[in-house]
Amino acid sequence: MLNILVTGGAGYIGSHTSLRLLEAGHNIVVLDNLYSGHRWAVSEEVAFYEGDIQDKQLVADIIDKHEIEAVVHFAGHIVVPESVADPAKYYQNNVVGSLDLIETCIQKDVKHFIFSSSAAVYGIPSTATVDETVTLEPINPYGKSKLMTEWTLQDLGFAAGDDFEFVALRYFNVAGAHSSGTLGQATPEATHLIKVACEAACGKRNGMSIFGTDYDTPDGTCIRDYIHVEDLAEAHLDALDYLFEGGKSTIVNCGYGRGFSVKDVVKTVKEVSGSDFSVTMESRRAGDPPQLIADNSKIKKMFNWQSRFDDLETICRSAYEWEKSRG
Ligand code: UDP
After folding, report:
1. 257 φ/ψ angles, rounded to the nearest 5 degrees
2. What are the φ and ψ backbone dihedral angles of 49, each rounded to 5 degrees?
3. CA 278, CA 275: separation in Å to the nearest integer?
4. What range does the domain containing 182 cover?
5. Which tens digits make up the pLDDT trace of 249-286?
6. DSSP class of residue 183?
7. Are residues 13 and 131 in the same domain?
8. Do 241 and 313 belong to one domain?
């Protein structure tokens, strides 16, 4: 059993991972400023701090009080188009915030750190699937903010020597909801495709748009590697096991290794919901790469990570059921 600080534990991926950490018998403490997270998404039994990762004193006090041994860092902004419109928000919160947090961890002798990175660090890959070694050329401020944080971890980790090891998990497109029906994506004004399509299917918005139908892909729409949030949560437990067994700092992709187009997703959400919501074809959205699919050999080999929900219909159905249940 470990004492783990989860930043952003009231958010979408953070809350699913926190639940899984609790199930695995760990002691967790959540720090979340509730900017996009929800208090209800964190179990009552968990010590909860409403605050910011940039509040170094608060973070240091939490580490002391709860004898924190590892930090799992989710807190951050995640919307690509917003990052294009307001890059300073992303550099402030994602880059400066992470730097503050990492520095505090190292100062307070927390040796193990898991970071939510993103496939957005790859930009527009030249290969069909991307492994962790390809050149990193993010094309939007969100992706750049994640890459800068990876560099921060590498450089501060190097300077700290054996006293600090991290795993950066590069998430591909995370979607779906918890099988228990108790957790799911609850972001207001959502922009992510599966969430938007499910809202349209539930009549919470008047249809939806497909951004860009002239990409160089089989049906002209962008292709993404959608991963179920519970499989992603499991990757964090595997990463912690790896570090506590003496593993060295590393970066791994989290995806299934296959892609679906925007049109595939819309069709699947229509099928699972039985709703023929209206879909408008629009021009491309700024900052979107045509295709992003993980080469996931590293995570499978290194962490023995196994997926349980690798099925677009399962992902869309769980997201739709969650959306419907929220009224
Ligand atoms: N997308 C879309 N309509 C929407 C939301 C997203 O056509 O209402 C497209 C978007 O342009 C991109 C893909 O769906 O090609 C995935 O976008 P999302 O925002 O879900 O994730 P991202 O890959 O940007 O992190």
Report:
1. 85, 20
2. -120, 120
3. 9
4. 176-225+257-325
5. 999 999 999 999 999 999 999 999 999 999 999 999 98
6. -
7. yes
8. no
| Pair 184, 50 in one domain | no
CATH code at 219?
A: 3.90.25.10
Same domain, 10 and 159: yes
pLDDT digits (tens, 9 = 90+) for 150-209: 999 999 999 999 889 999 999 999 999 999 999 999 988 899 999 999 999 999 999 999
**Do residues 260 and 312 lie in contact, with contact meaning Cβ atoms separated by under 8 Å?**
yes
CA torsion angle 268 271 274 277 (round to 10): 40
- Pocket residues: Cβ below 6 A from ligand 1: 80, 173, 191-193, 196, 208-211, 222, 224, 262, 285, 288
Q: What is the Cα–Cα distance from 57 to 49, expressed in whole angstroms?
A: 13
User: Domain check: are 139 and 283 in the same one?
Assistant: no
Judged on CB neighbours under 10 Å (0-12, 13-18, 19+), 81 is middle
Helix (H, G, I), strand (E, B) or coil at 186: coil
Q: What angle do CA 297, 303, 305 make, to 5 degrees?
A: 70
Ligand 1 atom 10, closest CA? 211
Name the catalytic one among 12, 49, 122, 142.
Answer: 142
- Residue 25 makes CB contacts below 8 A (sequence gap 6+) with 1
Ligand 1: centre distance to CA 215 (Å): 13
The answer to whether the pTM exceeds 0.90 is yes
- How long a stretch of residues is the chain? 327
